[in-house]
Design a protein that fits this description.
The chain is α+β, with helices and mostly antiparallel strands. It has one domain: OB fold (Dihydrolipoamide Acetyltransferase, E2P) (Beta Barrel). It is about 20% helix and about 35% strand. The protein has four helices and nine strands. It has a six-stranded antiparallel β-sheet with strand order 1-2-3-9-8-5. It has a three-stranded antiparallel β-sheet with strand order 4-6-7. The mean pLDDT is about 95.
């Protein structure tokens, strides 16, 4: 189940964890991503709090936690190859895996259709 925040993060929720990354829309708006600052493993975050930072040739952007929980894994591949966020934002370009502490928060996230409609409106 893929869910989105209006700040352009996605969460793939499965078995009490969420894999987190930035949306295809976000990477397109940022342009070429050149640096990723990952959270540390064990970091406890609340929904909407700063999780990571992504820098592109255009700007730096905060990445926010779509759900509350604890960071249990980070994708070190994106620090070596930040372009993975451009090339594969919904697959190889993930940022962190969070052990979800409040699964009910997922009900407030956008589904794919609602997010796409939101992103289109934001462009205009």
């Amino acid at each position: 189940m893929l869910k989105y925040l209006k700040t352009h993060e996605w969460a793939k929720i499965e078995a009490g964890t969420a894999v987190v990354g930035i949306s295809d829309h976000a990477q397109a708006e940022l342009g070429d991503i050149v640096f990723v600052e990952l959270p540390r493993k064990g970091l406890k975050v609340k929904q909407g709090e700063h999780l990571a930072t992504v820098e592109s040739t255009k700007a730096a952007a905060e990445v926010y936690a779509p759900l509350s929980g604890e960071v249990i894994e980070v994708n070190n591949a994106v620090t070596v190859s930040p372009q993975l966020l451009n090339e594969s934002p919904l697959d190889k370009g993930w940022i962190a895996r969070i052990k979800i502490s409040r699964l009910e928060e997922a009900q407030g996230l956008l589904d794919e259709k609602a997010y796409q409609e939101f992103a289109q409106k934001e462009k205009h």
